[in-house]
Design brief:
It is a single chain. By secondary structure, the protein is of the alpha+beta class. It is built from 12 helices and 31 strands. Strands 1, 4, 5, 6, 7, 8, 9 and 10 form an 8-stranded mixed sheet that branches.
């Protein structure tokens, strides 16, 4: 089996790199008399169903028996307070001995006072194919059974994959994941809550935060770290495969929440092609053979675009931060559309995708960086591996309501659309550069606007179809022979327009400044080729 939770007695000593003060403090809490293990999904559902913080709708869950749920299971709702998104400010990494010492001391106090509460614990598997699977354990106060139920619905309940897990690739030096959560925790030094992650020992604490997305992303962060250490590329993106008459085309789309990642990944393109979906949010690439593995069976999706008559409602398992009203039959149904608050969320079952796979053997044909950079045409093709990796590491976008921050139109940089990295940025840069060197083609999708024209999902999806079917016509992008743009009426770049050249120059300078600032920290420092190439691109606009 992949990760490990057992030790030979002679391995339990202070020199064992799998042990640390923080990891031992967290794992020890799992074995307290105040902790009850939930051993099946139905039991977790029942606890959530009966909890005073839960709203039980009249919406039936589709195919509940296949999910281990009661045949009459209903969609359950939990609503938070002021905070309805992820709090990046709360995130702390343990990377040094001092940080382990300091956070271990804090964690001992957390666990000590937590002994006054009753906790629930359960386990899931992250990774759905024997190529990559790790086990994750969560404990949370008993008055938050909905969060535990969401965890079991979002990931795969470990008992469901026992046989596959036991036959999965072994990672002998990797601990199982352990997470201690207490949404009620408060501390004057951490008014915004606290997420502590120890990437070396595969454990973490999520404190003072109710939003389920914190549990999900903490888990993915450390699962991606394990993958990265063991020869995989960690991917915060969506992947699907087109079945063409005589071939297949496998694509990966990388973007932050709100940029169109899920729309692009889950689109059926008008049923023009048979399409297989891997996942819309999290997967890993095996660097040895190029195969890809999904990490989650379900979809943690925004409810903003799902009115009550939308077909996707059928596949909801839970919802969070949404409203409730009564329909004409007096049944409790959802009020979505972000009417109650922004970033309403749901967990949709895997049944929402007709042709779903947990693993794709074929190598990736195309990587698509999704940006919201109004100086770029709808689709660019990058024909140089270094250039492709550079635009990935300087992926330009805008913040969304999924995060607990002020949303603005300011362009920000989020390398590879992954704000959850727990290892040096240069390692991701090199991994993606190697991917492109080995034959994967790179594209940029701008889903904002260009030439003061909005770029609709229809324009983006049509452009992807033209790439997949090799019917699109590309032209050189101004002074850059290694970059081409897909010809689309109304979206042609005009390099004779000085205003446009200046806007593109400003966008490239934003990237350059970002890279120069990151160079001040060894954890985020990048090779000098990145600044050299960006500088060269800027100079070409001054000629």
């Amino acid at each position: 089996m992949s990760s490990n939770h057992l030790f030979d007695r002679k391995e339990i000593h202070s020199n064992n790199p799998r042990l640390s003060g923080f990891k031992t403090t967290i794992e020890t809490a799992f074995y307290g008399n105040n902790v009850t293990e939930i051993k099946d999904v139905a039991a977790a559902y029942q606890l959530a169903f009966e909890n005073s913080q839960t709203i039980v709708t009249d919406l039936p869950i589709d195919q509940p028996e296949k999910l281990g749920l009661p045949t009459d299971a209903k969609v359950l709702i939990t609503n938070d307070g002021k905070i309805v998104g992820r709090s990046a400010i709360a995130r702390k990494l343990i990377l040094t001995t001092k940080e382990d010492k300091d956070f271990s001391a804090l964690m001992r106090e957390v666990v000590y006072h937590g002994q006054e509460k009753i906790f629930l614990k359960s386990s899931v598997v992250v990774g759905l194919h024997n190529d990559f699977m790790v086990k994750s354990h969560l404990m949370i106060p008993a008055n938050f059974p909905m969060q535990l139920f969401q965890y079991l619905m979002n990931f795969e309940f470990s008992q469901n994959l026992t046989n596959i897990y036991e036959q999965s690739q072994e990672f002998p030096n990797e601990n199982d994941l352990y997470f201690y959560a207490d949404p009620d925790w408060q501390h004057p030094d951490y008014p915004d809550g606290l997420v502590i992650l120890d990437p070396a020992h595969n454990c973490g604490a999520i404190l003072g935060l109710r939003y389920f997305g914190e549990l999900k992303k903490a888990t993915l962060s450390l699962a991606w770290q394990i993958a990265h250490r063991n020869g995989f590329i960690a991917c915060h993106g969506g992947m699907k495969q087109f079945q063409l008459p005589n071939s297949k085309y496998t694509m990966a789309a990388f973007g932050l929440s709100g940029t169109g990642k899920s729309t692009i990944t889950l689109s059926h393109h008008g049923n023009k092609f048979p399409i297989t979906v891997l996942h819309d949010d999290a997967f890993v690439i095996n660097q040895k053979d190029g195969g890809t593995t999904a990490l989650e069976p379900s979809y943690f999706d925004k409810t903003e675009d799902y009115a009550m008559d939308h077909a996707a409602i059928k596949y909801f398992l839970t919802a969070e931060n949404v409203g409730i009203t009564l329909d004409k039959n007096g049944q409790k149904v959802l009020v979505t559309g972000d009417i109650r608050n922004v970033n309403g969320r749901c967990i949709k079952s895997r049944f929402a995708t007709k042709d779903r796979k947990d693993h794709i053997n074929e190598k990736i044909d195309g990587v698509f960086w999704i940006m919201k950079d109004e100086t770029l045409p709808p689709i660019l093709k990058l024909n140089d591996p270094t250039l492709a990796a550079i635009f990935g590491v300087t992926l330009a976008t805008k913040r969304s309501t999924a995060e607990n921050i002020q949303v603005s139109d300011q362009l920000i940089i989020e390398p590879f659309a992954n704000p959850f990295r727990t290892y040096p940025l240069a390692e991701d840069y090199q991994n993606f550069r190697t991917l492109f060197t080995n034959g994967t083609t790179c594209y940029i999708l701008n889903t904002a606007s260009f030439n003061e024209r909005n770029i609709s999902p229809e324009v983006t999806l049509k452009g992807i179809e033209d790439i997949v079917t090799k019917t699109g016509e590309f032209e050189t992008f101004g002074p850059y022979p290694q970059i081409e743009y897909l010809k689309i009426d109304g979206y042609e770049p005009d390099f004779n327009n000085q205003k446009y050249r200046q806007a593109l120059k400003t966008s490239l300078k934003t990237r350059l400044v970002f890279v120069e600032e990151k160079a001040l920290n060894p954890f985020t420092e990048l090779p000098t080729e990145v600044t050299d190439l960006l500088t060269e691109m800027i100079l070409k606009l001054e000629k």
